[in-house]
UniProtKB/TrEMBL annotation:
It comes from Streptomyces roseochromogenus subsp. oscitans DS 12.976. PANTHER family: HTH-TYPE TRANSCRIPTIONAL REGULATOR RUTR (PTHR30055), MYCOFACTOCIN BIOSYNTHESIS TRANSCRIPTIONAL REGULATOR MFTR-RELATED (PTHR30055:SF238). This is HTH tetR-type domain-containing protein. Pfam families: TetR_N. Residues 7-67 form the HTH tetR-type domain. The keyword Iron does not apply.
Length: 208
């Protein structure tokens, strides 16, 4: 099986798990049901995932992969604050039905995670992995302007801004666009965090 086909199979399983979690909750869903819903054998399910909760990790990681790719496209030496805000806004926007559906699916998973410690652990793990993968991207963009600890602080702040924004939005009935949408909330979080970090203040802002 090719790597592309493996990734496609993982996504099919992830979509099946997310759909079942949304309709009947993680507690009432079994790995067997997820495999059957995805049209794969149970052994195939366990080839890729350790648990039923772990099955949704590709979906939760998709947004992080998308916004990290946007950052990777920026030129070294670019304004970090601007690059981060632009990538966050573009990755959390909902310009079409597919993007809107992805955000709503994330909302459903975060709501389910509130009552399922194992699913919540998957969410935190995905965010931790995203932060770690973001470190070299930030380092490249900083182009020698930041020390190692500062690079890690920026990666942590950016990751937490998105996580907190999505968790906050998931607790509401706000839509996928507008002032209370994930993109707007994430930028607000990022700016508040940036207010205490000189490395993320816009050029010319002394913080006074």
């Amino acid at each position: 099986m090719t790597e592309r086909r493996k990734a496609a199979t993982q996504l099919e399983i992830a979509h099946a798990a997310a759909e079942l979690f949304a309709t009947q909750g993680p507690h009432a869903t079994t790995a067997e049901e997820i495999a059957r819903h995805a049209g794969v054998a149970l052994r195939t399910f366990y080839r890729y995932f350790r648990s039923k909760q772990d099955a949704v990790s590709p979906l939760l990681a998709d947004g992080a992969d998308r916004w990290r790719a946007l950052l990777e496209a920026a030129e070294p030496g670019t304004d970090l604050s601007l690059a981060l805000e632009t990538a966050v806004e573009q990755s959390l926007a909902a310009p079409d039905e597919e993007a809107a559906a992805a955000l709503l699916r994330t909302r459903g998973l975060l709501r389910a995670a509130a009552d399922d410690p194992a699913l919540r652990a998957v969410w935190y793990r995905v965010n931790q992995e995203s932060e770690e993968r973001l470190v070299p991207v930030v380092a490249r963009l900083a182009d020698g302007r930041l020390q190692a600890m500062q690079v890690r602080l920026v990666a942590a702040a950016a990751t937490d801004a998105i996580r907190i924004a999505l968790e906050t939005w998931a607790d509401t009935e706000a839509g996928v666009a507008g002032e209370a949408a994930p993109a707007a909330l994430a930028i607000d979080c990022l700016r508040q965090l940036a207010g205490g970090m000189s490395v993320l203040r816009p050029s010319g802002d002394s913080g006074s």
